[in-house]
Specification:
Distance between the termini of chain B: 27 Å
Shape of chain A: elongated
Strand order of the largest sheet of chain A: 5-4-6-1-7
Number of strands of chain A: 7
Strand order of the largest sheet of chain B: 1-2-3-4-5-6-7-10-11-12-13-14-15-16-17-18
Structural class of chain B: mainly beta
Radius of gyration of chain A: 20 Å
Strand content of chain B: over 45%
Helix content of chain A: 40-55%
Order of helices and strands of chain A: HEHEEEHHEHEHE
Number of helices of chain A: 6
Oligomer: heterodimer
Largest sheet of chain B: 16 strands, antiparallel, barrel
Number of strands of chain B: 18
Radius of gyration of chain B: 20 Å
Strand content of chain A: 15-25%
Distance between the termini of chain A: 48 Å
């Protein structure tokens, strides 16, 4: 029985160590993720649907009208949401949402400034869609992660 | 009467303060929203020109919307010291996302300006609206409030863009003494109200963006309800056919709003039919927190129109303008509050004037 080439073993160990280090970096990195309740039927939303939803337009899945929930529990989350989800400044976003209220009486997205309350609201409502840091929701079995919307 | 009005304005402000508590958003698929747009204005006109109905010193526009599954109810109530009107009241059913059939009193879709700004002053960069877009109770010459059915749909085309179709069918205003009388859900409705058919076909380069351009059409059959108007017009009805095109384009810090309308007025005596053209272009440039804007309004053959002359009551304010140049600056000095200064030069049917307006506007909460 052959014991194998020692050089190959060293190379394999090096690759394994590199992969482990990379995955460690990935786990440690900041990620903002799109979330829904674990009871939600929503499996995926593309970026245009997410933008429509948070700009107050109607987005439905499986016959349910989805409800946007804004996470303003920390200023950085809000900044990333404005830059990466709706691609607008705070003032322009506010005016866009106000405009839809004026034109059609559309309800503005609900805002939560407390993460605990936000997660409770999302868990309780299978139509609610929000976003949060991955580290705050990854271990929560009652929250479903749809996708990463930003990472560092 | 004024005391009642002020109390109503204060009541609205108090309700607005309680807005967040009133807002419902639960997992029973019901959501509602409540918003108040308030504004206060100071006016000075040269050569004795006074502020008219379009320049109340204070006004509040209350918007309330409720969504329950696919059903929607929406209302807009406007209050000034001289006026309290349910401007819009619509009940709708959303068949598929962004396709709604409404019933009620609505703003006709063939107005490029009013379907964007409605009565909410805060979301309008400038203080004044173009003369051709004025409301009926401001001596506006184009019917704006229709009672009936409104179909609205926005559908994707291609990867990002969309088309928007709107069509309205209902009761047009009646042509009374120096103004149009739209159907009023809370008051009397003198005169006969005949058919109004209005529509818009627009292209949106981005489904969720602010830019659009399109074609507008409106056919309003107006019944004359005033003896003085009957004599002046020599006709017991006027059929208004409006054909227009518009563009509302935003590119980074720039915004251009332009519209042009061809209006044909058919009277019962075919030989005396008349037509006129009216249009405007407004350019805005954001220099945060300021926005500088300028607007040019022009017209052709309006001074020859008997129909247009009906709306000029020759008092101390200007009811119908042939041309206007306006220039101004808006300062968004804090969240949801702005101060605006607007200077304008106006050529009306009977005189010219220069006007200065200063306005505070806000959205509450």
């Amino acid at each position: 029985m052959e014991c194998g080439n020692p050089v190959s073993k060293i190379a394999a160990a090096a690759v394994l160590i590199s992969l482990l280090m990379a995955s460690q970096r990935l786990l440690a990195a900041e990620q903002l993720v799109l979330i829904v309740s674990a009871d939600s039927k929503v499996e995926q939303l593309d970026s245009l649907e997410v933008r429509k939803l948070f700009l107050g337009l109607t987005v439905t899945q499986h016959g349910d009208r989805l409800r946007p929930v804004l996470n303003e529990s920390d200023s950085r989350v809000k900044e990333i949401f404005l830059q990466n989800v709706v691609s607008m400044s705070d003032t322009t976003y506010d005016r866009s949402v106000l405009r839809l209220t004026l034109i059609q009486g559309q309800a503005k997205p609900t805002v939560y400034r407390n993460l605990e309350l936000l997660l409770k609201a999302v868990i309780a409502d299978p139509t609610a869609v929000s976003y949060a840091w991955a580290k705050d929701v990854a271990q929560n079995p009652r929250i479903k992660l749809l996708r990463v919307i930003w990472y560092d | 009467m004024q005391h009642v009005c002020y109390r109503l304005i204060w009541l609205c402000l108090a309700l607005a303060g309680a807005g967040p508590r009133l807002a419902i958003a639960q997992h029973d698929h019901t959501s509602s929203d409540f918003e108040v747009f308030v504004a206060a204005e100071a006016f000075h006109g040269a050569r004795g020109v006074q502020a008219g109905e379009a320049d109340p010193w204070v006004n509040a526009d209350i918007v309330l919307g409720l969504t329950e599954h696919k059903f929607r109810v929406f209302g807009e109530y406007y209050i000034t010291p001289d006026e309290r009107d349910l401007e819009r009241f619509q009940m709708g059913f959303e068949f598929v996302p962004e396709t709604v059939l409404w019933f009620g009193r609505f703003h006709q879709p063939a107005s490029a300006w009013n379907t964007e700004h409605h009565h909410g002053q805060y979301l309008q960069t400038d203080i004044t609206r173009p003369f051709i877009e004025r409301w009926e109770d401001e001596h506006g010459i184009i019917p704006q409030h229709i009672a009936g059915a409104l179909f609205e749909s926005r559908q994707s085309i291609g990867k990002e863009s969309a088309i928007q179709i709107e069509a309205g069918l209902g009761a047009a205003p009646a042509l009374s003494d120096r103004e149009l009388d739209a159907i009023d859900f809370t008051g009397g409705n003198p005169g006969r109200h005949r058919l109004s058919v209005t529509g818009r076909l627009a292209y949106l380069p981005e489904y969720v963006g602010p830019s659009s351009m399109g074609l507008l059409i409106a056919v309003d059959d107006l019944s004359v309800s005033s003896p003085r108007t009957l004599v002046a017009l020599g006709s017991n009805s006027a059929k208004i056919n409006l054909y227009g095109a518009y563009a509302d384009w935003t590119s980074e810090a720039w915004r251009i709003v332009a519209a042009n309308y061809y209006v044909d007025v058919a009277l019962t005596s075919a030989a005396r039919n008349e037509s006129f053209v009216s249009g405007y272009v407004q350019v805005e440039r954001r220099l945060s927190p300021f926005t500088v804007f300028g607007r040019l309004e022009d017209s052709a053959r309006m001074q020859e129109s008997r129909y247009v002359a009906l709306f000029d009551d020759m008092d101390s304010d200007i009811d119908v303008a042939l041309r206007r140049q306006a220039l101004g600056v808006r300062w968004d000095y804090t969240r949801r509050q702005a101060l605006t200064l607007e200077l304008s030069h106006i050529v009306s049917l009977s005189r010219t004037s220069n006007e200065v307006r200063v306005q505070w506007s806000a959205a509450i909460p």
